[in-house]
Give the backbone structure.
Amino acid sequence: MENMKKEAMAIELKQITKTFGTVVANNKIDLSVRQGEILALLGENGSGKTTLMNMLSGIYKPDSGSILINGNAVTINSPEDAIALGVGMIHQHFKLVDALPATDNIILGVKDKGIFLKKSRSEKIAEIIKRFGLNLDPEKKVYQMSVSEKQTVEILKVLYRKADILILDEPTAVLTPQETKRLFEILLLMKKEGCAVIIITHKLNEVMEISDRVTILRKGESVATVNTASTNAQELTELMVGRPVELSIEHPETYFDENLLEIHHLTVEDEEGINMLKDISFNLNRGEILGVAGVAGSGQKELCESIAGLLPVKKGAILYHNENIVGKTPNEIIKMGISMSFIPEDRLGMGLAASMGMVDNMLLKKYNEGKSPFVSKKSARELAKRLVEQLDIVTPSVDTPVRRLSGGNVQKVLLGREIESEPNVLITAYAVRGLDINSSYTIYDSLNEQKKKGVGVLFIGEDLDVMLELCDRIMVLCHGRVTGNVDTKHITKEQLGLLMTDAGTKKGGV
Amino acid sequence: MIINFLYAAIKAGTPLLFGTTGEIMTERSGHLNLGVEGMMYMGAFLGFYVGFHTGSLPLALLAAFAIGLFAALIYAFLTVTMMANQNVTGLTLTIFGTGFAKFFGESMIREAGGSPKLADSFMTTISEKPIPVLGDIPVLGKLLFSHNPLVYIAVIIAVICSIYLMRTKAGLNMRAVGENPAAADAAGINVTLVKYIHIMLGGGICALGGAYLSLINGGGIWNNSSAVNGQGWISVALVIFASWSPMKAIYGSLVFGAFSVLQFYVPKDIIQIPNAFYVMLPFLITTFVLILASMRKSKEGSQPAGCGVNYFREER
């Protein structure tokens, strides 16, 4: 081994540093990937994973440090340079042109001879589809595609350009377990063909399943690189967080026997008249967390918004203590004594006013308190200060516009405000999306707190592993229909995954 | 009678076709340029001015095209590089262009000591004459092959733009930039360059429409107060009517051209409507087109998704 010439790494990053203003996003990071190897890049939110990868794909430029590709030092000034060097990146938010078919998206920007678009382009794409056993109609327009099909187009883009270095930024966040499995099969095939693959993910079980080595980033620095075979999830978490972390989610038993919300045959259509929810019925009890699982866009958003009174209901009833709240405005619902809290998916768009500070955002729920025609900021300011302390919110001051806070802190501000209003029903959509492990567990804990108090929690989630631990029951949505409503004690992740894709299952409870 | 009406409609629709094709090229690259009226005004003035002094049609058209490029360059610099608001910038360009043409138009009138008139030889060059052989075909010959040279230029430009958009790689790249600049950027396309090229090209084509108005419609005499007179705005609406396709713009401009000459072909002794109504008609139709377009939901043939939004790569 000693006398063998050292094989050149596909990618080698040396002492990469990148700062945004005064924030150091990456600090002297070293990283390397061999050909035919899958490297997992692990780290909490804000640890600099995406920033680092964006420097490989030409979106950002490093302040200092060097990048070596196949042993040669290179400068990557633009995505164009990155592509020329064989680096393909699949971004977390797909970079596809909705109005164009898959074919045009795939050949977009490819520099080959000729002025006109060639008919033969689809043949070449069909050949790649066949070689990798993919499942895609190349003539389908992107806006008609499912999330997994879009991802397939992104992968095809990379394959078409014959990239031998593939970077995937949280590719499984929006996939069902079955789709994830298929993605991993493709990655293993690419590995066999000698590609170097970097995969960014939060999910430890996926790291353990797919990767050969793991590099862990913490606060912009690379803290360790370990062989996957000689580590475990617990060790990885500790490296990532920097201290031992309890990885289990509490699941307290509650003994309320009371129906809080009853949804009967709820049908909601969008503005184009397409049914987004079809004939949905379920109950939400006091002191339970009801999970809602489903592929993105299965009707979760519409479900939340129709219960919160933000979307008009076409058919069906929403009963709160046997009183129908359909057709009532959010204000009327509050006046009925129903306290419902809604933590929307789009936090800065719907949940908070992005350019206002914490104090003013607290006021949004308190503005009609008291009799004076003038707004009193005093109680709101006290509440804001209390939340900062209780939830460890990192902010320069309670008057700093919330859009300047990091995603996790924004989430805490919103959750704190909603819990503070002592709701009986709490609706959360993707409460931990984009949060690191630590913050996520803080959120799970506060949800459990609420559950113990007798609040009915509707938890729209993505991570099935977490949902199985946290929720009492899980309702599965697929294309706007309920395909299952199951007790978490009696179901596996794979079964849930099947329900998420199979619209044929009978409706209602099991 | 009907042939005469259609013939006049083609003639009146041609400046709209220039404006519409130009604006389609601009909007397809993701920029809504409301400065069409202004760029047409600038083209109208400079085209006339150069034609007046040199007596050469190619030079006049080249000058109009060049000043359109230049005006659009200002717009592109402000919106692409400086990321200024597209609507405001476009409106400002319209005000600037109109003022520019009227100011220099006035001084051209003083210089000439009265309304400047194009030389007779120039007027012969731009007059309507049948193309040999083709022009002799009955009906069609008169309708399609007996126009002034600018009519053919307009149609040829629209056809070329259409082929460019739909059949070439550069056209695909440009459509991608207009739909989703971030995606185009990630695919290795130079978004800024693509935008500059097409905004400027579009401006140049729009300005040719202005030259048409001052050279042909003006009858060889410079009219300082109403050289363009709202045709730019109709072009902006026509882009929507044509659902961003230069081929459809050919038909669309014909329809709008027909409305604007309708008053001369309605038998006055049978139908009596005040003239002001006919003058208003194209604008009325424009309003209806805009309302209908805003009600359309389909993804096909709709405005490029990135149109009106400035792109900044490092924005999160």
Q: What stands out?
A: Chain B touches chain A at residues 167-170, 172-173, 175-176, 179-180, 182-190, 297, 299-300, 304-305, 313-314 (CB under 8 Å). The mean pLDDT of chain B is 90. Chain B has one domain: 2-295.
